[in-house]
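Please review this one.

:::
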Amino acid sequence: MCGRFTLRTNPREWADIFAVVRQLEAEWQPAYNIAPTQPVVCVRDREEREVFKARWGLIPSWAKDATIGSSCINARVETVDTKPAFRSAFKKRRCLVMADGFYEWRPSDKQPFYISLKSGEQMAFAGLWEFWKSPLGPVESCTICTTDANDTMGQLHDRMPIILPRHAVDHWLDPAVSDADDLKPMLHALHGVELQTWPVGKAVGNARNQGPKLMEPIDAPEDLSFG
């Protein structure tokens, strides 16, 4: 599962890495505790590769209202091509949901942890986006694809977001590709050795709390056995 994450790096700093042509036009501010229904920064291929903002929690085009989005923040890889809420977007509207890291809570004591790449690079979550016509105007929304956790993440949760390696980005975003048999093999857990994680303060549990202090490590518990 992925229910909270961060994006503190300006999209302009990683635009070249992901071959972005059209930059984000809307105002951007770093976010240290992104929660469902909030705006997130995504990358997609249309006429050109572009950065855009979307509401986190996918609202299918056929939805009567936006409430379904709250239950569609994550899309399980096992059913992403068949579940009605996601199957159309999986074929036609794939994206990257950009992050610097994410939070997860250990079930035994509800201790939150922050997870990022050891390389320090941005995470490109495999995502889907959708367009919904609301009574107040158009809404673009998105979801993050998840899979079974690797050995590292398995100590915190049985699921984790799919972090695409750089070599898989172009194929994932290619709108000409729609075959599930071609796409789903790339949707697997990143190896645990590529991740780093540390315990953080419980203030992150309140989505209203923001700021870099949320990511700061606290003293690690004695039984902490991963990097």
About this structure: Residues 5-207 form a domain with the hypothetical protein yedk fold fold (CATH 3.90.1680.10). Residues 87-92 form the longest helix (6 residues).
